[in-house]
């Protein structure tokens, strides 16, 4: 018996030795979820899937943030699922609330106009708070200060496949800044003056534009107009040093000063996407086509050996990224 098991034991020992002897085997990273107490069931579902499909092998920490304190029940029921450490934080008011210098009359008129245009979340102030926070504040939260990479998770999303390697280590070892699974077209009425603001910024700060940029991901005519493409930010694995750096800091402050997070409904997805398109090299972006994922009605399922080795529960190659409302096909052409 012991003879039969020898090769397996040797393999296990050598794999463990290799893992332990590799310097920095783990990345400086955390799983991150912004959510409300009322979303507990969806939070449990997402955490359970990430744990089963990935994190039970890697034990990365979790951070949950909320604009209100989490309840004891929330903390208890979430904590027992996690294989790594879990922290719960409250967001400081000054990172979340609509600032006093925003003209509320103007903002209210903009919300009413957007409602008449039937834009989703047209009249929601809390949604705008959330988009602005995800654009310029999450990486400033004290609980995130020790970390470099984050994986953004939302309640009620689906993770269809096993991930048999560490995506954070992949990001770090390949010098990646930002990674996505799905890309699509933004609702133009939510960002009518965003691109004009971006053009103003590019004129004032040309030094931040990367020579190997992907502006052509977000503009089809050399930067004149926004094509409304963006990476869907409900899934993101990215490097917070990018957001904490000079270019993005200047960029966010510039956008913030225009008030477009409240006078329009600028989303964190177009803001992040435009920023990485301008300020990073195409080599620093990554499409995790092997991560099976679904948010609301749009999903992505890997195909072929990625589908089978991932033991995916989705239908192979059934992907939003193949359709006309996706920007991923264009991205693949641009980057390869
Ligand atoms: P959608 O994906 O654009 O439809 O927006 P969601 O409603 O899913 O919100 C995006 C993320 O922000 C989710 O993780 C939500 O749980 C979270 N979120 C949205 N609004 C609030 C809020 O007012 N408070 C808190 N704590 N989380 C929020
Ligand atoms: Mn969502």
Summarize the structure.
With 336 residues, this protein is of the alpha/beta class.
Following the backbone from N to C, one meets helices and strands in this order, namely HEHEHEHHHEEHEEHHEEHHHHEEEHH
Strand content: 5-15%
Mean pLDDT: 95
Are there runs of 5+ residues with pLDDT below 50, and where?
A: none
Number of strands: 12
Q: How do the strands of the widest beta sheet line up side by side? A: 3-2-1-4-9-6-10
Structural class label: alpha/beta
- What is the 3D shape? globular
Alpha-carbon distance between the termini?
Answer: 51 Å
Radius of gyration, Cα only, in angstroms? 21 Å
Number of helices: 15
Bound molecules: guanosine-5'-diphosphate, manganese (II) ion
Report the sheet with the most strands, covering strand number, pairing sense and barrel closure. 7 strands, mixed
Q: Share of helix among residues?
A: 40-55%
Notes on the protein architecture:
By secondary structure, the protein is of the alpha/beta class. 43% of the residues lie in helices and 13% in strands. The strands form 3 sheets. It has a 7-stranded mixed sheet with strand order 3-2-1-4-9-6-10. It has a 3-stranded antiparallel sheet with strand order 5-11-12. It has a two-stranded antiparallel ribbon with strand order 7-8. Strand 11 and strand 12 (298-300) form a beta hairpin. Helix 8 crosses helix 11 (246-258). The longest helix is centred in the N-terminal third of the chain and has 20 residues, at 2-21. It is globular, with a radius of gyration of 21 Å. The chain starts with a helix and ends with a helix. The mean pLDDT is 95. Bound molecules: guanosine-5'-diphosphate and manganese (II) ion. Guanosine-5'-diphosphate (GDP) binds next to helix 6.
